[in-house]
Design brief:
434 Repressor (Amino-terminal Domain), 8 helices, Cro/C1-type_HTH, DNA-binding
């Protein structure tokens, strides 16, 4: 559950609900409601919480997005893909092949930035799809 993940990450960073609420400019009672799942938050609030907790929105909402856990690093995923074929993995989509070729030459910091951007784009896509379905 999203609220449980927020609470766990907040506690790992040694933050109180009140401190996190202050960081994202909401009342402590609102923060409590977010963590307990009794109040829905906007994507903007989710993004603010993720920034305050030094993670991505996908890291917080992976269960709601039906994604596997976020413990596997980007480099591990790339290495796994590379093991399929030594120099060039076989992707069904040519764009995936191009993405792989471009990523393999980047340093770790650049790769992390790219994956954070991709996660945010996925979150936005899922979020707006859910909003459209509610209408």
């Amino acid at each position: 559950m999203l609220g449980e993940e927020i609470r766990a990450r907040r506690k790992r960073l040694g933050l109180t609900q009140k401190a996190l609420a202050a960081l994202i400019n909401v009342k402590p009672t609102t923060m409590c409601q977010y963590e307990n799942g009794t109040n829905e938050m906007s994507f903007a609030v989710l993004k603010s919480i993720a920034e305050a907790l030094k993670c991505s929105t996908v890291d917080l909402a992976y269960e709601e997005l039906a994604l596997p856990g976020s413990s596997e690093t980007f480099d591990e995923k790339i290495r796994g893909a590379a093991e399929q074929k030594e120099d060039e993995p076989a992707f069904a989509d040519p764009l995936d092949t191009e993405i792989f070729k471009l990523l393999k030459d980047l340093d770790k910091v650049a790769k992390e930035k790219v994956i954070a951007y991709m996660r945010d784009q996925k979150s936005l896509t899922v979020y707006y799809s859910a909003v459209r379905r509610r209408r």
